[in-house]
Amino acid sequence: MTIPPPDAAAQGWDDLLRAGTGPVQRSFLDLVRTTREYVGYSPELVSGLLQTPEYAAAVLRLVVDFYGIPDDIEAGVAARTARAQYIGQEGRSFHILLGEQALYTEFGAPEVMRGQLHRLLEATDLPGLTLGIIPARARLLVHPGGGFSIFDYSRVEVEGYRGAETITNQDRLALFRKAFVLLRSSAVYGQAARDLIESALATT
Fold first, then answer.
1. Is 138 a domain residue?
2. What is the pTM for the complete model shown?
3. Angle at 158 between CA 153 and CA 163, to 5 degrees
4. pLDDT, tens digit (0-9, with 9 covering 90-100), for 6-52
5. For the chain, how many structural domains are there in total?
6. Can you give the residue range of the structural domain that contains 181?
């Protein structure tokens, strides 16, 4: 899945996606570029901010095939993976939560997953990035729900088959901020997170 950012939301998910993955990913890149503080939760796949080109291509292949849109995966991958350059840049902060299932949901061949898991291990040391993983058997304090991204605590993007919903209403924003805090309390960080990644790597 992809998430349409500000101009994409105004233009409409269907209109933008109809042109392929490139326009959506480039617009989303613009959103990340203007964000100073990002928090995101991705329960079943690796966050787009941390995807390898091979993993991103496998994910976008599913999008192209599902929606029957132009096959411009190369352009989509280039814009999607370019987001990572902003992690830690000029004081930006990124806090990403992954569900443990994201370490096992297979996109592409086994070597694609191995490369992606190695990338996550490297990411645990990135300045400006806080990476937490919620163990499969962790006690949750809130219903896990689906993935979401919060930009500068003023805008939320929520994904789904029908496209993406942009939320700016303060009351609804507060619910997502609260959900992230509660999910964060169930996550592990540092060496404990690396141990989970390495366990997944050992079975891939």
1. yes
2. 0.90
3. 140
4. 444 445 555 677 888 898 898 889 999 999 999 999 999 999 999 99
5. 1
6. 6-202
